[in-house]
Design goal:
220 residues, alpha+beta
């Protein structure tokens, strides 16, 4: 489940850079939330979709929810992106990593399979759950990670597990968890997930002779 016990970034320079970017996103998200507050009908629509009141309260309380009319763009590579001042009504959800706002995902409540990122910097919702399964972060890491199909599903579950927002980079992150962690997905989605995890594979291994001293290589 989603929580507020975010980890601190280890590197001060990385933290400062992430914090600066997060402040820009925070200002943008706050500006959109102020200019077009979420209506009672909009909140009711989310609850009709099964969004858990607790996750709504956590996100709303953190200032990570807004609504706006946006324009969706499709770059040649990477995830779909959105720009403000468009015509398509969308729900906006802040995406955090280690407590820092790194992106904003726009969702369609009419088509839960459709979403777009503001910057393309985030690869998943629920990064905290991913970190709890990462043996590089926690020696007593969790053994299972729930993969939710859509951001709406992630909100329905109360923020359990993660929702992958960018599958072009997700396999690298998920493979890093190692074989001790089990990824749990919806029924019927296992084969596709296994195929995505195999995409890109692992580096090949080749045996070569011993290293020759640099002066011998130059003489040759």
């Amino acid at each position: 489940m989603i929580g507020m016990d975010y980890l601190a970034l280890a590197n001060d320079a990385d933290f400062d850079a992430a914090l600066a970017g997060g402040c820009d996103l925070r200002d943008e998200l706050l500006g959109l939330a102020t200019s077009q507050p979420m209506s009672a009908a909009g909140m009711q629509r989310l609850f009709e979709l099964g969004v858990a009141p607790r996750i709504f309260g956590v996100l709303h309380g953190a200032g990570d929810l807004a609504v706006a009319r946006v324009a969706i763009t499709s770059p040649a590579r990477g995830p779909m992106l959105w720009e403000p001042e468009g015509t398509e009504p969308r729900l906006l959800v802040g995406v955090r990593e280690q407590g820092v706002l790194v992106d904003i995902v726009s969702l369609s409540t009419e088509n839960p399979d459709s979403w777009a990122l503001r910057r393309g910097a985030a690869w998943c919702l629920g990064h905290e759950a991913f970190e709890r399964c990462d043996p590089a972060v926690h020696w007593d890491h969790a053994q299972r990670l729930r993969i939710q199909a859509t951001p709406i599903d992630w909100m329905r579950s109360g923020g359990e597990g993660i929702c992958v927002l960018d599958w072009s980079v997700a396999p690298h992150h998920l493979r890093s968890l190692g074989e001790d962690v089990q990824l749990c997905c919806d029924r019927g989605a296992g084969a596709a997930l296994r195929g995505l995890l195999r995409f890109g594979g692992v580096p090949g291994v080749r045996e070569i002779g011993p290293i020759r001293p640099a002066n011998e290589r130059r003489a040759a």
